Amino acid sequence: MQIYLPIAEVSVNAFLLLGLGGLVGVLSGMFGVGGGFLMTPLLFFIGIPPAVAVATEANQIVASSFSGVLAHFKRRTVDLRMGTVLLVGGLTGAALGVVIFNYLKSLGQVDLLVKLCYVVFLGIIGSLMFVESLNAIRKSRKNTGPIKRKKHNWIHGLPFKMRFRVSGLYISVIPPVIVGVFVGILSAIMGVGGGFIMVPAMIYLLGMPTKVVVGTSLFQIIFVTAFTTLLHATTNYTVDMALAVLLLVGGVIGAQFGAVIGAKLKAEQLRILLALMVIAVCLKLALDLLFMPSELYSLGAAGGH
């Protein structure tokens, strides 16, 4: 069943979009990521223009993350205080990111930038997570005791400390705010919730327990991506509602299944699965950029060359 998307100006199979939404919803519930880092490239692959994919995907992330958060609230694995601190940084970063996005759009270079950002970030994060997860699995096999977290002394020495009871932490608010700003910028430029950066940062940088990280990450993602969507819709007019609704329906259903699956897998297994998916998408995008020069010429033409 083909459906015409007015803003994207392409026809796409409606069931394909529902399926993609469902798949990303499952990932959202399992890993605490908005799923945008996979969905946005998948939208590129089926012919949606990058500027539209970025703005519309931010919209879909709101719903799938909201659905996932509800499941985590029931289990009491959301640190609201930490989520709020991350959110302050996230909203600031999102506003900054939309300004950068609009500037690049005016130069006609936004499509290329978005794809290059994906290749770089997904490559780095996927590799780091994969190596770390393999080490964690090895350690857990050798030693049946709990894996000890390294204490980052420089973080513990920073001022403006706050107690985060759900996470069992007493740390400075500066690192979470910086993480939030960074994720907000990425959310605006790449159409991602930023969970693929947020989750590792919360575990390794802030030292939060993995079970609390997923729900807290989703809580923050909801507000940052909603704000990003609003800014894109009012300044760029690149939010395609027909596309968003189909992705939403699939995403909300998928997130509930994902939360159930995620609860049954070990943290190390979850992270290694996520790492493999990130690397796979990165490779596909890199190959597209290398082997499709016609795309680059059309981008150049859009810039008025």
Automatic annotation (TrEMBL):
Record-linked Pfam families: TauE
The protein's name in its UniProt record: Probable membrane transporter protein
Gene Ontology, cellular component aspect: plasma membrane
Residue ranges crossing the lipid bilayer per the database entry: 12-39, 85-104, 116-137, 158-179, 185-206, 213-235, 241-261, 273-292
This protein's record includes keyword Mitochondrion: no
Membrane topology per record: Multi-pass membrane protein
Keywords: Cell membrane, Membrane, Transmembrane, Transmembrane helix
Subcellular localization: Cell membrane; Membrane
Keyword match Cell membrane: yes
Classification via PANTHER family: MEMBRANE TRANSPORTER PROTEIN MJ0441-RELATED, MEMBRANE TRANSPORTER PROTEIN YTNM-RELATED
